[in-house]
Predict the 3D structure of the following.
Amino acid sequence: MAKVEIPIEVARKFTKGVTSHEVDASDLQDIIISLDKDFPGIKEALNTGLAVAIDSSILQDWFLEEVEQNSKVRFIPAIEGG
Amino acid sequence: MSKQHVTMTVNGDPVEVLCRADQTLLDCLRDEMGLTGTKEGCSTGDCGACSVTVDGRLICACLMLGVEAEGRKIETIEGIGESEELHPVQRHFLEEAALQCGICTPGFIVAAKNLLEKNPNPTEEEARYWLAGNLCRCTGYDKIIKAVLKAAEEMRG
Amino acid sequence: MTLQNGNGHNGNGHNGNGASNGYKYVGTRPVRPDGVDKVTGRANFGADISLNGMIYGSVVRSPHAHAKIKKINFDKALKLKGVKAVISGKDFPTLKPSDKLPGVAPLSFYDMSRNVIARDKVLYDGHAIAAVAATTQAIADKAAKLIDVEYKILKPVMTAADAMKEKAPVLHDDLFTEGVDPTPKKASNIAKRTELKLGDPEVAMQSADFIVEGDYSTETVHQGYIEPHACAANFAQDGSVSIWASSQGAFMIRAYTARLCGMSTSKIKVIPAEIGGGFGGKTTIYLEPLALMLAKSSGRPVKMTMSRTEVMRATGPTSGGTAHVKIGAKKDGTLVAGTLELKYEAGAFPGSPVALGCMTGFAPYDLKDVACLGWDVVVNRPKAAAYRAPGAPVAAYAVESAMDELAHKLGIDPLTLRRKNSAKEGTKAVYGVEFDRIGNEDCLQAAQKTKHYNTPLGENQGRGVASGFWFNIGGTSSAEVMINEDGTVIVATGSPDIGGSRASMALMAAEVLGVDVSRIKPLVADTESVPYSDLTGGSRVTFATGKAVIDAAEDAIKDMKRRAAKVWKVDFDQVDWENGSAICIENDEIKPMSVADIAQIAGKTGGAISGKANINVTKGAGPGFGTHICDVEVDPETGRVTVLRYTAIQDVGTAIHPSYVEGQLQGGAAQGIGWALNEEYVYSKEGNLLNTGFLDYRVPVASDLPMIDTVLVEVPNAGHPFGVRGVGETPIVPPLGAVANAVSNAIGKRMTSLPMSPAKILQKIDAG
């Protein structure tokens, strides 16, 4: 199971404020699909303006990245640069 | 507005140019003569990107009218350095990495060369004040000042 | 970890003996490949382009901060001889709020389009309303003045505090606060609320022995690049467009312009000019769609250049903002909790970097209980653009000031306090991510050891220190390494060179190929000569485009090994690459073939030789940490601040070309010093910008600054073959705090508002 953390604002809107979820999935796409089943509509919110951190790596542009068992996956604000 | 016929010397060559009475020397150099090495950063004499010398005096080309150049000797960045050899100021700018984007560089080189012609042995403070009319937003001036002082040292021999 | 003291070097060119880091080229300081063009005036920047039959554009800009456009009348302008085209917002496709850039960055083309040219409403002084093209610049400027615009003037709102008030004038009647549930039904100026939290800071704060708390404010500042925006556009009869422009990304211009003009990407070619500074301000478009539409309408190539006044009124800037910070600590200096609330002014459209401020403010510290709340607020100022480490400097200013205050309260040396609480490998940042090996602690330690930090101060002098953090990013980059017939090498990328990146591309290619760096020519290709690349920004080019160059060079080596194997009639795996030559592993009788040898027989062995790499570096960018030390003297009579001494210490990963790395640190420090002491947008109460030139928007000049010493802490980044870490943005994060702490320590009172003008300082001193 991957441990998934979603931003407070998204949680407030879709998950009654719960920010931590355990999801059985092997890649980011599966995680999104699985979360959207439990919390309809969350898919779009997570796909807009958010980067993903898998453990200590921040992925700005993500789609199919693999997620290992016990990985921590966090949706965080996208990073822009100057 | 009708154009005026102006004769001047630019980088040692005689030049005849037609320019409007309200056209700056900067616009004459860039638009009428194709000398785009002199840059425009502000057009109000605040940034020094258009530094040129007129009869040996350092000025901002955006603050002088083209017609005022009648009979004068203008030196621009295009006149600095020989065909196969850079001027010591140019060379030390490169060796010291005294430029990042490079837009202010022609103005700095014209101004620094002019400084060293007037004062071959400037202190750091003198160099900083002489070049205070030239803005650089990339380097923090550190390497520019070092390049100018090294060029001065080399030129003194 | 290794240390390079930036002062120690003698500015030596590449000496061929290699660097001290085990590499032959990486870490040396050769003259940059584009250097001669730039010191002789030959380099062509945005405004230097000239096209056959070219005419000139001029923009009509709003004199009002907030108004409805009732009518635009072009009659008088069109009667002027030489006028070839006029356009207004009506000539552009109408976009919808849902028109966004797909992908991660929440970029709204709906907003961008209305920023580039106003539709029914103007939202700031300088907002573009219409444009005209004529045979000379003088006629175009005159025609622009003849375009009549009728306005219904509305009340402007200029600050976040005012804009957040219940009865504030509302800029957009379709803007509803994001990030609150339920989404409000009433439109407001609050675009977004962002909250980040670890643990429970409210509870943890109760266990603190000491608490420091304060409000800090900063003003809008501009990136201040010396080159005003400039471009030229040509529209051919077959509908194909060429745009020459200086920007941080040719592909960015192509994508955004296509979208705003309703064109296919394939119809637009963008040729990058040299760029005269950007600092994030040239990561978006302003003139290009106008020039394109004027060219289309007139049938002539159109050149447009902004004046400095236009640059100040209508481009950049970065958000001014306020911060409320609270930090709790134990007696021994251990931090127990921190909170930060930020309100940033986005300008006329949503999108201030407030979320990034929230993420970065506390990043240098190990805090288990920490929360940051951010508000993105629209006001009648130009739409904020990215500026070097967007959002981070203002947040760091508040946190680093509070840390300084805390150190005083506790009687602990401010660097020791930072070291005691420094984020390190395994520390979880407020945005939830654990750091890998980082150089934060190393920088603090190096700072404490500098001669600077251990030199006593005189009367009226003060010393300030501050830390800073920036994420750094990777992204999509492409590169092609082409072997010429004589064995010299072309390295083509799609990343505009804004501060010497050609030099680092050449050095990395030289290192991989084993070819002398003087035989490598890097170039920045146009959008039809190299595959897509993200823009130059986010401190990503040396890291990500560098990685593409390394991969492309390795690909070229593979091709050259294949050629050697063919000639030697051996298997491919019998060929190795060493010191710039193919060698035969099993048979040392066979003479190695150099790049030049192989290039010479390229035709006979299968044609021209090149290698390419198109990559998206999604991870491994390696965050940057830095610590700055600043000494100032404050004149108690006048309030004038003199910066006496400045040292910037930063973990830079491996410095590919140390001189340009030092330059990044020095330049970032200088911009931060300007932000702290001089720079601010000053508006009239009607919302007109009063300081639109460099005379009164005062960026630091040479006589304002001392030498800026640098210490390059080199903790190689495990995510890059040479250990590269982005270096461009981190250096602007610490200076606001470092300078403010220095001034505060000099006068014995905390400076809580930037810029620290003499008047503000005197007021503080006189307040008793």
Remarks:
- Chains A and B do not touch (no CB pair under 8 Å).
- Chain A has one domain: 2-77.
- Residues 2-77 of chain A form a domain with the Ubiquitin-like (UB roll) fold (CATH 3.10.20.30).
